[in-house]
Specification:
This protein is an alpha/beta fold. It is 36% helix and 23% strand. The chain contains twelve helices and 16 strands. Helix 2 packs across helix 7, helix 2 packs antiparallel against helix 12 and helix 3 crosses helix 7. It is elongated, with a radius of gyration of 24 Å. The two termini are 47 Å apart. The N terminus is likely disordered. Bound molecules: zinc ion. Zinc ion binds next to helix 7.
Amino acid sequence: MISAKSLVVALVAVVFCGASFAQGPTDTTFARDSVQIRQVFDEVLMHAQAHENLRHLCKEIGHRLSGSKSAQQAMDWGLDVLRDHGADTTYIMPVEVPSWTRGSVADAHAILPNGQDMALHITALGGSDPTPAGETIEGPLLVVRHLDALDTLDATGHIVLFNRAMDPLLINTGAAYGGAYDQRGNGAVAAAKAGAVGVLVRSLTHALDTLPHTGSMRYAEDVSRIPAAALSTVDASALSKAYAQARERDQTVVVRMRMDCADLGKVMQGNVIGEWRGSTHPNEIITLGGHLDSWDIGEGAHDDGSGVVHTLEALRALRAIGYTPHRTLRFVLFINEENGNRGGKKYAEMAASEHEAGLRHVAAMESDAGGFVPRGVRMDGPDLQVAMVRSWAPTLEPYNLHYFGRGGAGVDIGPLKTLEPRPLLVGLVPDGQRYFDLHHSSQDVWENVHKRELELGAATCATMLMLLDQHLPSPSN
Ligand SMILES: [Zn+2]
């Protein structure tokens, strides 16, 4: 068996000999970074607590919908683990969040022209109103693919199905999700404006299965609030087919639906924060985070239990290898990403007032794309800093980290964009091909997170945090 130390030496020798850096780091920096990165990966792969932390979060606490008791339990747990993993200061940043319950009934059927009763797999979209008085509503079905199709259609009394699939041609599944999201986010408003009494939305996933995938939706103040539910992809396809056949014969498909979800008002919860004070630049802050809240029909294992335990593990591992941060590292478990992003917005408000007081965010990183094998990072920030991160590619190549793209780095850290000078925002990019199979569904559970893939993600977060700490220029420079 080869020792970790000799592996480090061998690795440095191998990578060193093959490297040439016209514009990259100096040989000395490259060698030092390579050794440190190897230490981080060794520590995580040998001693990680990420998988066990995720088990606790998913199995002992469970889902963590904002405003719920379990979200509060998760906050208390997060504070304990941050302390245990080496934060020298921990606190809760209070955030007012919505409280909503799915209830116990989400039932829908289609009645086909031949009298056949087709049971549909639905679940309420987050924040939806119930059907009036929790009773069954009924209406002829109208199927459309785009919101603006309703501009010229009269949907009075109908139940509308938005049935546009995520674009299979986009390799970035997050982009495919974003391209189909309008149906879920704004479908209820568009359908209600056209006179509909209820709305079904094809689940946002490439998977063809009978699982409804929930997610946030919104109402508009001057538009009537109609109940909105996610429909499984298998049902959405079958229902559309039945609808098309019925229309050819001038017949009607009728949909019945009933839901008893309820708005429970507002509750105070908060972002859970642990800090590790910087040794030479304590007034410069680098944040790493994930969101603690989750949807309520699974366990929020990938979304975003993985980001939570990546964050905790990065702290633990950097402590364990004896790292001394230059900047103050802030580990943040955000609340309410899923249905309002109030945690992320509140955090940015605090960062703005800290800015006034001379505390500067130089970078923020987020893990909120699942616990799958990491491929690299996505960045949003000044060109020079993006170029600097790209120059680290040779040191990250041995870990199969090849992707250094630009784009939205994450919902929770997004509001930090308004700070001036702008901090570099970085998002972990795990392989996303299977993420939406599980996303916001009953299958987003601990058993579906692979231990080693989860640990590689944690090691990548810890590595990026360390490199950002060491290499990013100070804002005043
Ligand atoms: Zn998420």
